[in-house]
Amino acid sequence: MFDFAIVGGGIVGLSTGLALGKRYPHARILVLEKESQWAFHQTGNNSGVIHSGIYYKPGSFKAKFCRDGSRSMVEFCQEHGIDHEVCGKVIVATEEQELPRLENLYKRGLENGIKVQKISPEAVKEIEPHVKCVGGIRVFSTGIVNYKQVCLKYAELIQQQGGELRLNTKVLKISPSGQNQVLETNNGSFETRFVINCAGLHSDRIAKLGRVEPQAKIVPFRGEYYELTPEKRYLVKTLIYPVPNPDFPFLGVHFTRMIDNSVHAGPNAVLSLKREGYKKTDFNLGDFAEVITYPGFWKLAAKHADEGIQEIIRSFSKAAFTRSLQKLIPEVQAQDLVPTHAGVRAQALMNDGSLVDDFLIVPGHNSIHVCNAPSPAATSSLEIGTAIVAQIPQQSHLETVVTTM
Ligand SMILES: Cc1cc2nc3c(=O)[nH]c(=O)nc-3n(C[C@H](O)[C@H](O)[C@H](O)COP(=O)(O)OP(=O)(O)OC[C@H]3O[C@@H](n4cnc5c(N)ncnc54)[C@H](O)[C@@H]3O)c2cc1C
């Protein structure tokens, strides 16, 4: 019998476990993960960037959690000896017509309380000598880390707090049992007072198992990366981003120096035909049918056909991918790029075709469901974990009783 059971051992599930243990030190906490390793899906295949929070709408959870989260992530890494670097990044306009959007982004950065600086093309060259641009912004607080390592530390700390962690345990059914709930898995049944759904690409399905209608469907978008060959890594010192499309800030391939010193280029964003489809050929009939019978998908496709087609072209044509990167660094050639890992984003999509932009946390009966946790959820994970725990109705039976003699 547990007080809390968390479904999903990605960075959001594990940070929630950590925050719960701090809030309720005597609680019996369980984390269930279907894979044989922590952080196997989104968290383990992301860009490894500690985002600053410049892009997000002022006042949104994303903006607040990211600004605070970038600080708490760096502090966490310092405290626990996890390799990381606050190397900063540049966002550059490569054409005059992008300058007004760059200016807006700069203002947004200031509004979000981020340390940003407008810099000339010459100043960009001092930071990134191979970039060609007409103007730039320097963002100081951006950093890099390996989020898998962060998750391993979260898991270790949960165990130290007395929490129970189960890998290879897939939640198949959630049944009520009086005031409690029983999670039926491939590895036995677990009874709990409260369920926290952090199942990423499957969060809408777990919500339904818990009799909650999430009002948005998870649509998987694969992000594919290339890597610079080791002899060309000198082309990139830190992180180089284009000016984003305000409607799709996650579009626009960029260069990222990773914490292991490799340099990744990407990711793009293409519809994945399987929720955990890391290869172009991956296909699952059930997952695919769910997307194409969802009205929201067709509304999104109709509205943004051009962007979608460009992304598909970039996915199948290395030449097109290279051309996008050459806008930032003209010297990059196709032979300097080798395909590397891909990640699949769990993007919640509403029935009206709009993408859910902010984090979406839906309460249920004795349960909470994280129905949208897109980027920068890894950066913001410590803040998200704390926010989830704050939304759980007070569990008075778990409060520490202080007795006086
Ligand atoms: C390509 C890409 C690049 C990104 N880059 C960045 C970045 O640089 N910085 C940043 O801050 N964010 C980035 N993000 C976003 C970030 O990685 C995600 O927002 C974050 O990892 C989400 O974490 P999660 O725990 O919600 O999901 P996940 O990491 O996907 O974890 C969910 C877990 O639930 C498990 N699960 C699902 N169903 C069940 C079940 N039935 N039973 C048991 N377990 C189950 C899954 O196996 C999985 O391990 C990126 C994302 C992608 C895809």
UniProtKB/TrEMBL annotation:
Domain FAD dependent oxidoreductase span(s) in chain numbering: 3-389
UniProt-listed PANTHER family: L-2-HYDROXYGLUTARATE DEHYDROGENASE, MITOCHONDRIAL (PTHR43104)
Organism of provenance: Atlanticothrix silvestris CENA357
SUPFAM superfamilies given in the database record: FAD/NAD(P)-binding domain (SSF51905)
Keyword set, alphabetical order: FAD, Flavoprotein, Oxidoreductase
Keyword Cell wall biogenesis/degradation: no
InterPro entries, alphabetized: FAD-dep_OxRdtase (IPR006076), FAD/NAD-bd_sf (IPR036188)
Pfam families, per database record: DAO
Class of enzymatic activity (EC top level): oxidoreductase
UniProt GO MF annotations: (S)-2-hydroxyglutarate dehydrogenase activity
Protein name: L-2-hydroxyglutarate oxidase
Gene Ontology cellular component terms for the protein in this record: cytoplasm
Family (UniProt): Belongs to the L2HGDH family.
Enzyme Commission numbers on file: 1.1.3.-
NCBIfam families: PRK11728.1
Swiss-Prot/TrEMBL cofactor(s): FAD
